[in-house]
Amino acid sequence: GDDCNELKRKYDACFNLWFSERFLKGDHDDEMCASIFKVYQECVKKAMQEQKIELREIEAEYTTGDYNTKSEHTKS
After folding, report:
1. What confidence score (pLDDT) does residue 73 get?
2. Can you list the residues of the chain whose pLDDT is less than 70?
């Protein structure tokens, strides 16, 4: 929603700074932008609920990490 646009701009700016100043220099710790991402993510989720948009299947896979563990289970 429109309410999230400013949060998106702040997150994008933080991410771009992190990527260029830290990630590309070997520091892969992404905690720098984690708090603003969480606020932005909650804003988007709220806007989706208000618009009756549901992405439960995608959310379940990516928030629980199932997309990483599926291949691990097949190897054992």
Report:
1. 44
2. 1, 57-76
Determine contact, residues 38/10, Cβ cutoff 8 Å: no
User: Considering only CA atoms, which of 7, 26, 24, 4 is closest in space to residue 16?
Assistant: 24
User: What totals of helices (H) and strands (E) does the chain contain, helices first?
Assistant: 4, 0
* 18 contacts 30 by C-beta, under 8 angstroms: yes
Q: Where are the domains of the chain?
A: 2-70
pLDDT for res 51: 81
Residue 64 Cα distances to 12, 14, 17, 20, 31, angstroms: 24, 25, 27, 28, 18
Give all strands (DSSP E) within 1-76, no chain letters: none
* Residue 21 CB burial class (10 angstroms; 0-12, 13-18, ≥19): exposed
Question: What are the structure tokens assigned to 58, written together?
Answer: 């995608």
